[in-house]
From TrEMBL:
Source species: Suhomyces tanzawaensis NRRL Y-17324
Function: Involved in the biogenesis of the 60S ribosomal subunit.
Bias type Basic and acidic residues, positions: 413-424
Disordered as annotated region, ranges: 395-424
Family that this chain belongs to: Belongs to the NSA1 family.
Protein name: Ribosome biogenesis protein NSA1
Quaternary organization: Component of the pre-66S ribosomal particle.
GO biological process: ribosomal large subunit biogenesis
A cellular component annotation (GO) from this entry: nucleolus
Coiled-coil ranges from the UniProt annotation: none
Family annotation (InterPro entries): WD40/YVTN_repeat-like_dom_sf, WD40_repeat_dom_sf, WDR74/Nsa1
Length: 424
């Protein structure tokens, strides 16, 4: 298995190659085949870190950085490329955003041969690629709402339709362009004018007649929309809520569940049928919840004025607790509905079987994980001579490689701290 990880601490990339059964926390367990650090930052401060990664048509590795830099790296003939030339920087775009503005989304627009980058400030840009030339300037997109956003996603079922939301910025569904669309449209002067398709309305006041705050953290489009012009959307909030919207049933959510007390950080579907969802919070939760089954009397609230209030909660199907996860999990990827890849504050990369929730690999990276890209799920077969002596030699070599990578990370962090101190 092969993964590319964006490091929060250093702004660099890590390439992890391991097999099922890997566990760096156990000395006698299988160790990773390779953990390599690639310094791909631009030499600026810590804020110049990659928050989103995407593989663009197996040609480019694209990273969106805090402060508006979009870095394009080479992925062609990766296995034949010399080690020092791997992930070589091809081009950097500098977008017109504040130095502290954080990318919340990096989306491939395959029919347009383009990518879309959305920032917390609600600034959105589309960048078009044509061959190996990077001569198209980024095109800004003005959203109907200028409030900050924390989620911006594309509808995988309908091309050109997107949804976004954030703190006190309720769910909106927009259309950016009509179908069919191709990259040829960039030969003329293009102007994207979003059309609002749906604007959500907050839920009713709670049992104390108080307004319920809005803070959307993640959005997913459901594929079982009732009509071609309608949409079903699942959102999570920083208040531990999951809400389901159906545009044919009004502006308010048709379902509203409170599943945890902490803020929900990441969310992905748990199966191909979209009958379950996997969420993480800022504490240690990585839980799988059913979207079709609920416990009708699971949440009980006692109020002196309203009496006992009973509300349904989505059925918890299980937690991905093997491996001792601690801290927020920012990176969460469902790879082919087969494995779940997770990484976050505790500096471990964990790989789980989605169906059984068993841990398949656990690798200590030495850096906090912001984003992870799944490159390959196949285990490479190794030719190992029979005998314990040969096996021990391989394990020791891998352990030395891991220690070397960790020392490289520490040196890089200290150099950045010294540079920051000298600037002060």
């Amino acid at each position: 298995m092969k993964f590319i990880v964006a490091a929060d601490d250093t702004g660099s990339l890590k390439e992890v190659i391991c097999s099922r059964g890997t566990d760096t926390s156990k000395q006698d367990a299988v160790q990773p085949k390779s953990i390599k650090n690639y310094r791909v930052d631009t030499g600026n401060s810590f804020r110049n870190k990659i928050t989103k990664l995407v593989n663009f048509q197996s040609t480019y590795l694209i990273g969106a950085r805090v402060g508006g830099e979009v870095s394009i790296y080479d992925l062609v003939n990766e296995e034949e490329t010399p080690e020092e030339e791997k992930y070589s920087l091809l081009h950097t775009y500098k977008l017109d955003v504040d130095q502290k503005d954080k990318p919340v989304s990096l989306i491939k627009l395959s029919p347009l041969d383009s990518i879309l980058i959305a920032f917390e400030s609600s600034k959105v840009f589309i960048i078009h690629f044509q061959g190996d030339e990077f001569d198209y300037a980024p095109i800004p997109v003005t959203l109907p709402s200028t409030k900050s956003i924390n989620a911006f996603v594309a509808n995988p079922n309908v091309e050109g339709v997107f949804a976004y939301g954030g703190q006190e910025n309720d769910l909106q569904i927009i259309k950016l362009y009509e179908q069919p669309a191709t990259g040829l449209m960039f030969n003329d002067k293009v102007e994207f004018k979003p059309k609002v398709l749906f604007n959500a309305k907050n839920v009713k006041n709670d049992h104390l007649d108080l307004r319920v705050p809005v803070w959307i953290s993640n959005i997913l489009f459901l594929k079982d929309a009732p009509t071609p012009d309608a949409y079903k959307v699942l959102t999570s909030t920083r208040y531990g809520q999951l809400r389901i919207y159906d545009t044919t049933h009004g502006r308010r959510p048709v379902k509203d569940y409170k599943i945890c007390e902490k803020a929900i950080v990441a969310m992905t579907f748990g199966d191909e049928q979209q009958e379950s969802v996997i969420v993480t919070d800022v504490h240690n939760l990585i839980g799988k919840y059913s979207l079709i089954k609920e416990d009708e009397k699971a949440l009980k609230i006692h109020s002196a004025s309203a009496g006992d209030v009973v509300r349904p909660v989505l059925k918890l199907l299980g937690k991905f607790s093997q491996g001792g996860n601690t801290g927020a999990t920012h990176a969460l990827e469902n790879a082919e509905d087969e494995v779940l890849v997770a990484g976050g504050l505790d500096r471990y990369l964990r790989v789980f079987d989605i169906e059984t929730r068993d841990i398949l690999a656990k690798v200590y990276l030495g850096v906090e994980v912001l984003s992870v890209l799944v490159d390959d799920l196949e285990d490479e077969e190794e030719e190992v001579e029979e005998g314990a002596e040969k096996k021990i030699t391989i394990q020791r070599k891998r352990r030395r490689d891991i220690e070397k990578a960790e020392e490289s990370d520490e040196e890089e962090m200290w150099s950045k701290l010294d540079e920051k101190k000298s600037k002060r």
